[in-house]
Every structure is written in structure tokens, then in C-alpha cells.
Design a protein that fits this description.
Oligomer: single chain
Order of helices and strands: HHHH
Helix content: 55-70%
Distance between the termini: 21 Å
Structural class: mainly alpha
Number of helices: 4
Radius of gyration: 21 Å
Length: 130
């Protein structure tokens, strides 16, 4: 994950330099906003990859002497069924409709969305193998 982290850090640096140059010469707010968001998104991915490398160490595909059989075995825990993605989708839909019909519906949608997201994150939090 270290090489991927450095790759996305380079992409973030490129977007940052492009953003500064674009802001200096073009002075157009939409392009500056798009490049700033692109820089932040690449930075988030780089941060995730570098933290994962620090936490889990080098993967077999990161080492020159890595073998295929080193990646065999159990991969992870995958939940068999859950109602929380449906609740999350309903919350997003209510938020989108709330933008059109009013703040009251948007706030209801934000509450439903928060319940769905918390449910997905915390559904299997007490499992030992999760």
C-alpha cells in the first residue's frame, strides 16, 4: 500500500500545484473549487493507503520475494444480510427530495440517513472475527 499511497500523494500534489496556478491566472471560482476538491479526494486516498501500510505492514505483492500462496486463506468477514443499506438509500432519497420540497423533509432524511449509516457501521461491531 506504500507505493499506492505515494502515487496518490503525487496526484494530490499535482492537483494542488494546478489549483494554485489556475487560481492565479484564471481567477475563475468553479475551476478552483473543482481542483481543490480533487486535491482533497486524492489526499484522502493517499492518507488511507499510507495508514493501512503502517497498520498492516507490507503485503506479499509489495515485496520482491512475495509468493501467491501468502495471500490464501480467509479474506474477511462479509455480512450475510442487512436492512441498513435500504434505510441509508431511503435517507439519501428523502434528503434529495427535501432539497426540492423544504428543509423539514431534508432534516427527516438526514435523520434517516444517520440511522442507516450508524447501523451499517455498528451492526457487527461486537464480533470478534469482524
Amino acid at each position: 500500500m506504500k507505493s499506492e499511497g505515494y502515487l496518490f500523494a503525487g496526484v494530490a500534489a499535482f492537483f494542488l500545484l494546478t489549483d494554485v496556478a489556475y487560481g492565479w491566472f484564471a481567477r475563475e471560482p468553479a475551476g478552483v473549487a473543482a481542483l481543490t476538491v480533487s486535491c482533497f479526494m486524492a489526499s484522502v486516498i493517499a492518507f488511507f493507503c499510507l495508514i493501512n501500510h503502517r497498520r498492516k505492514g507490507a503485503r506479499p505483492e509489495d515485496r520482491h520475494g512475495g509468493e501467491i500462496h501468502e495471500r490464501s486463506g480467509r479474506l474477511d468477514f462479509f455480512p450475510p444480510h442487512s436492512r441498513h443499506p435500504v434505510v441509508t438509500a431511503a435517507g439519501v432519497a428523502l434528503c434529495a427530495v427535501g432539497v426540492v420540497y423544504g428543509l423539514w423533509l431534508f432534516l427527516i432524511g438526514a435523520g434517516v440517513l444517520a440511522l442507516g449509516l450508524l447501523g451499517m457501521v455498528l451492526e457487527f461491531a461486537g464480533r470478534d472475527d469482524a
